[in-house]
Write a structure and sequence with these properties.
The chain is mostly beta strands. The chain has one helix and seven strands; from the N terminus they run βαββββββ. It is globular.
Length: 138
């Protein structure tokens, strides 16, 4: 799912507030040379709100080696959640490798969701930064 008109994306931070070079849109633009680069600190997160509910089967990531999200938590909601709302479905069994290649997280069964929160509680970067070149919802 790469058409930005079908969803809204928010991120925890952007390096130096430089949204042109390191903003969230770069994860979805199909350009292998652009990326989302978070600021320092943990956790970092990505939230996606779809206009309509989606059947989600998995996620594809391409991190920058050395800046890979760790202790990942994926939360799925049938509606946009209020503050402190428990997710309808939650997964914590994705352990990305510290590599530059595309990595795929396939769920055991698809999830119907309108809102996704991806949380990276830690990073392989000493300062807690996460860099993602590609994020694709399957």
């Amino acid at each position: 799912m790469t058409n930005n008109s079908k969803f809204i994306c928010r991120v925890s931070s952007t390096l130096n507030n430089d949204h042109k070079n390191y903003g969230k849109k770069n994860m979805f633009d199909g350009n292998e040379e652009t990326c989302w680069n978070s600021s320092e600190g943990s956790p970092q997160w990505i939230e996606i709100l779809f206009k309509n509910n989606q059947q989600i089967k998995g996620l594809e990531f391409q991190f920058q080696g050395g800046f890979v999200g760790q202790k990942c938590l994926f939360q799925f909601y049938k509606e946009q959640p209020e503050k402190n709302t428990e997710p309808d479905v939650e997964f914590s069994d994705f352990y990305p490798e510290d590599i530059n290649s595309i990595q795929i997280y396939n769920m055991k069964s698809s999830v119907n969701a309108k809102f996704i929160r991806l949380i990276f509680n830690e990073s392989t970067d000493f300062y807690g930064r996460v860099i993602i070149y590609l994020l694709r919802i399957i």
